[in-house]
Amino acid sequence: MSVDLARLRTMAGFTDPTAGISERFVEVPLESGSTVGVLSLPLEARRTTGWLISHSFGPEQPNLSALDVAIARRLASRGAPVLRFHGQGYGDSEHVSFTPTIESHVQDSVDASRALRDLTGLHSIGLIGTKFGGSCALLAGLKVAADHLVLIAPAVRGARFLREL
User: Fold this and answer.
1) Backbone dihedral angles phi then psi of residue 76, each to the nearest 5 degrees
2) Torsional class of 156: left (φ above 0), alpha (ψ -120 to 50), beta (otherwise)
3) In terms of C-beta density within 10 A (0-12 exposed, 13-18 middle, 19 or more buried), how is residue 79 classed?
4) pTM of this prediction?
5) Which among 32, 33, 41, 87 is most buried, taking Cβ atoms within 10 Å?
6) 112-158 tens-digit pLDDT
7) In this predicted structure, what is the pLDDT of residue 148?
């Protein structure tokens, strides 16, 4: 069986001229192993700040995935590069059997922030997260000296968050 590598490469991303964006799969090196990310880019002039979306935890992650995609595409349509990724233990990460912790989520966001800077050449970054992802974005943002933070209903009380989860 032969594999049409040229055809396969065409499926690694897409361009939406109506929305003014392109997206492509990228490899994101994390301290804990590699993972897959999606880099959303504007087709027109870029802003000077790139954004990283820090995903949520457990069953919230797939439930909020569509929101993360919508945020990434909207920001890209407004000129900002955006990276969203799977932390270790999720989706397309190298170690799907890995049990994520608060510390691993934060470290994965720190590492993905570095990857965003490498992929875009931008030094100014912002982090975005919803619920648990917002809490991780805050903690990672402090470690990487993020210029901007967007926290959507961040989890602020761990025990309560886990009960509600």
Assistant:
1) -65, -40
2) alpha
3) middle
4) 0.87
5) 87
6) 999 999 999 999 999 999 988 999 999 999 999 999 999 998 877 66
7) 97
